[in-house]
């Protein structure tokens, strides 16, 4: 796993070089995908570059990415999961909260993840083989806050909460917490891993959105599940916590 993590960090370096070079470019090419979400030339360039490198370095591994898909892999097997730019809507508008997400799934379990946000000057990574979780600032560990009334709760925009008919639950959970913040995307999960927040939730998300954050949060001794309580990045949504307030939050979100 150490060799895989080293490769993942190198891949993140390559991705950062591409994304930073095109961030804020006035001639950035942006298209609309069939699901009506934007995709930029940088999204595709990053995924193509990482796929080419993985094909050379790990020719026996499967790859699954947001832009070019891939095959499902059932145990035993290894699969790299790529989100070339998590936060493309912000990227194309000049907002610096975006990141490349990389994860490695082994025998059906996500074992490591790297989250690289070069416009913020930040990077986080973690492995579940006992290697722990780290950022460019040092080791990561979730907070010891044990009550919702003392917790910071992070969430994204209201749109997904409305579409999934969970806006009431969002407001209820928010009212139970000490503070709410709408950071969204990868960053809210990294705040949980750092101990700066206790809860982060996406009511609707894809595997590539959640695999790397799951690895980092869990390696930081936190908990990461779907909204039904299963430890997975493939459950259609994500709930990350320091573990101590997880079930209290999930109960409200299930209401």
What report would you give on this structure?
The model has no long low-confidence stretch (mean pLDDT 94). The radius of gyration is 17 Å and the shape is globular. It folds into two domains: 2-136, Fructose-1,6-Bisphosphatase, subunit A, domain 1 (Fructose-1,6-Bisphosphatase, Chain A, domain 1), CATH 3.30.540.10; 148-253, D-Maltodextrin-Binding Protein, domain 2, CATH 3.40.190.80. Strands 4-3-5-6-7-8-9-10 form an eight-stranded mixed beta sheet, with helices on both faces. A five-stranded mixed beta sheet has the order 12-11-13-15-14, sandwiched between helices. It has helices at 2-22, 41-57, 88-93, 158-163, 167-176, 185-194, 207-219, 246-253; strands at 30-32, 38-40, 62-65, 69-70, 78-86, 99-106, 109-117, 122-127, 132-135, 138-139, 152-155, 179-181, 199-202, 223-225, 238-241. The chain has 255 residues and is of the alpha+beta class. The chain has eight helices and 15 strands. The longest helix is centred in the N-terminal third of the chain and has 21 residues, at 2-22. β8 (122-127) and β9 form a beta hairpin.
Short description:
By secondary structure, this protein is α+β, with helices and mostly antiparallel strands. Helix content is 36%, strand content 27%. The protein folds into two domains: 2-136, 2-Layer Sandwich (Fructose-1,6-Bisphosphatase, Chain A, domain 1), CATH 3.30.540.10; 148-253, D-Maltodextrin-Binding Protein, domain 2, CATH 3.40.190.
